[in-house]
Amino acid sequence: MTDRKKSLLGGVLGDNIVLSGLMVISPVIICGDTLKNAEALIYAFSAITFLSVLISSFVPKKLPYTAKVIIYALISALVYIPVKLAAREFYPESIERIGIYYPLLAVNSLIVFQTEAKFFRMKKGDMIISLLSCIVGFDIVMLLTGFTRELFAYGTINSRIVDVNTLIGGLSQPFGGFIFLGLMCGAYRFIRGLVSRNSNNDVRSDADVSDK
Asked: The pTM is what?
C-alpha cells in the first residue's frame, strides 16, 4: 500500500480517532442519540477542524510551541463563529440539545495536539489527505451512532417513525451511548486485527513465491 493510500485510509480504518484513539468521544456519547444531532455535529466538526488546521498550517514554525498552540486555539475560535451562525439556521433544535459540546469541538484533539505531532510534519498535500481521512473517520462513527441509537431508542429515523419491534430506551442516555461506543470499539479492533493478519499472510505468501 502506498504512503498516499495509507494517508487516505488511515483515519478511517487504520487509526480512527474515535474508535482507536478514543478522541472526541464526549459529543458522540452525550449528543449522538439522533441522526439530526449527528448531522449537526458532523457539519461542525468537519468545517471547524478542516479550516482551523489548514489556516494554522501557515503559522510560522519557529514560534515557541506554547505560542503556537494558543494561536491555533484562537484561529479555531474565530472559525467557530461563522460555523455556529450557519448551524443555527440549519440545525436550530440540535444546537439547543448539543449545548456546550458544540463549542468544545473548536478545541478538539486534532486541532490542539495532532497539528504539531502529526499534520505539520507532512507535506501540504499529504497533510490535507490525512486530515480529511481523520475527519471522515469521525463522521462515519458519528453517523452510525446517531442512526442506530435513534432507531432503537426512539423507533425513528430522522424523526420519522419506523416499525421497530423492540426499543431500548437506555440507548438515548449517556450510559447507553458509552456502552454502544464500547461495542463499536471492540468490533472495530476485531475487524482491524483480521485485516492486519490477512495482510501479513499475503505479504508472507508473496515472499515465499519470490524465494522460489
From this structure: 0.83
